[in-house]
Amino acid sequence: MKFGVVVFPGSNCDRDVAYVTRDILKQPTRMVWHQDTDISDLDVVIIPGGFSYGDYLRCGAIARFSPVMQQVITHANQGKPVLGICNGFQVLTEAGLLPGVLTRNRDLHFICDRVSLKVENNSLPWTQGYSKDEIITLPIAHGEGRYHADASTLKALEDNGQVVFRYEGQNPNGSLNNIAGICNITGNVLGMMPHPERASDEMLGSSDGLKMFAGLLEKVAAMV
Q1: Interval 20-38: pLDDT, tens
Q2: Measuring CA to CA, which residue among 212, 202, 207 is closest to residue 164?
Q3: Euclidean distance between CA atoms 205 and 183, whole angstroms
Q4: Known catalytic residue: 86?
Q5: What residues make up the catalytic site (predicted)?
Q6: 0.90 exceeded by the pTM?
Q7: Domains of the chain: which residue ranges?
């Protein structure tokens, strides 16, 4: 399986993701510059965290217009896996691949911490390695991570099982319904504020995030 990690000016978690896919899981991985217009060789696209274009205007608003994003939209519409982490989640909402928006944290402070998450949906290729309602711990690092959507969108997300991760216990940023991660209606596009790539190596104190990437590989292997 070939992974592509999108790199915008200001991305700073791209190499963290590549370390997991290339060095831990031994999968071919290509760094995809934001001006690239051909990603047809990729099986999976990951949009990493960071501060794309300096987060000017609002997080993800400029990155959404990068040449590569039209290719990512096509990739997603073909049913192929797309993961957006932190700033990547913001980019996916700006691009219309996921509903809602990420706004300033409740207290307007940048938060860097570890949080407990409940796995609400473990039927996705990304989450099949977890148990339903499993509690995991992942790092967060964001200033605009409060998920917001109108009442009808929230109801649809809940009714359709599109809430994938939910903050357990303390809600760090004020996200509605404690939402930490959601997917699209078909389940191939996932956006989340916590960083699974920062919890994928025991040397960093946790490997709770590794199950996401390994689970995807197992799902694809089972289909071959």
Answers
A1: 999 999 999 999 999 999 9
A2: 212
A3: 27
A4: yes
A5: 86, 195, 197
A6: yes
A7: 3-223
